[in-house]
Give the backbone structure.
Amino acid sequence: MKSICLFSDGSCLGNPGAGGWAYILRYQNHQKEASGGETYTTNNKMELKAVIEGLKAIKEPCKINLYSDSNYVVKGINEWLNGWVMKNFKNVKNQDLWSEYLKYSKDHKITAFWVKGHDGHPENERCDELARAQAERINGC
């Protein structure tokens, strides 16, 4: 099973407001970046959307080390998700995105790691730059 790093970040202007997401996938010496956005969303949605879009780009089952500055994403994956599934996502926000996460994560072994945002982590800074640019583009800045 290949081992891949997935770096992700989301951005939102206004929260809710215009938002952007971005990811970097890295496998050995290969790297792929992608970003996108939505007109009216929240920061948590964009953080999770970045992860989902990164997973969609992976074509085979992999061991994935996921790096995010979002406690919501990291704790959601590592701590809360199993309980949410057991209670059928009752009273859980962003059920649609968490269900989509489950769909695209099922073939992988994922471990999520929290990184401090805006603290010089190169990949997190790059994802933040890409996600913010998408949010600003949508917002007309």
